[in-house]
């Protein structure tokens, strides 16, 4: 296994075991506690992690009809309905069933990952049966597990792992989305730069500059006169990009063109 893949596997393992540890002492009632992930409780978040990893193990997906009254699931959104099925079938599971299945899935999946002889660019089967390079699958799974670990930590008042290897993988995963957010979604004009100044457990400065052709690039250089500078802490930045909080309620400092800033912030959530 290459060093790159080993790092991703180790980061995934640390985060999913951390999620398991946080869930281990939860009471039956606490499993029903709402998280910032729209429509999902702690049980639902963990059910999602279990369901995806079982799918990647090759287990058959459950045959299940979703109820029609799930407000967070849009009838025309195939992906949200796809994600909801393994979640809804576990809504009657007990705390012991949830923790037991999570532990069992972690062990099986880790053996699969450690035994894999895939190269980073090997095409493998991902979610919904779509083909994706192996390193991209590992990176997205590490991000997804870490994001949901943070959902559970916030819901239980047990912060942590904000500077872990999985947090660093997640930072890079989110930063890679910013050029599209700025240039395509927020429609910032060519020649302008948007700066993101983030402090806290993971500190970084990134600038997204839109080129003459309308394509944006991201870098670490300090812009002399950015159109907009958005400053916040790492946890808030991650929550914004994961769609966990609205910009209007975030602890965020805006400098520069406020209209442009509002356009960027309106599009900054890249996942839910």
Automatic annotation (TrEMBL):
<feature type="domain" description="Mycothiol-dependent maleylpyruvate isomerase metal-binding">
    <location>
        <begin position="13"/>
        <end position="153"/>
    </location>
</feature>
<dbReference type="InterPro" id="IPR017517">
    <property type="entry name" value="Maleyloyr_isom"/>
</dbReference>
<dbReference type="InterPro" id="IPR024344">
    <property type="entry name" value="MDMPI_metal-binding"/>
</dbReference>
<dbReference type="InterPro" id="IPR034660">
    <property type="entry name" value="DinB/YfiT-like"/>
</dbReference>
<dbReference type="InterPro" id="IPR010872">
    <property type="entry name" value="MDMPI_C-term_domain"/>
</dbReference>
<dbReference type="Pfam" id="PF07398">
    <property type="entry name" value="MDMPI_C"/>
</dbReference>
<feature type="domain" description="MDMPI C-terminal">
    <location>
        <begin position="169"/>
        <end position="262"/>
    </location>
</feature>
<keyword id="KW-0413">Isomerase</keyword>
<protein>
    <submittedName>
        <fullName>Maleylpyruvate isomerase family mycothiol-dependent enzyme</fullName>
    </submittedName>
</protein>
<dbReference type="Pfam" id="PF11716">
    <property type="entry name" value="MDMPI_N"/>
</dbReference>
<dbReference type="GO" id="GO:0016853">
    <property type="term" value="F:isomerase activity"/>
</dbReference>
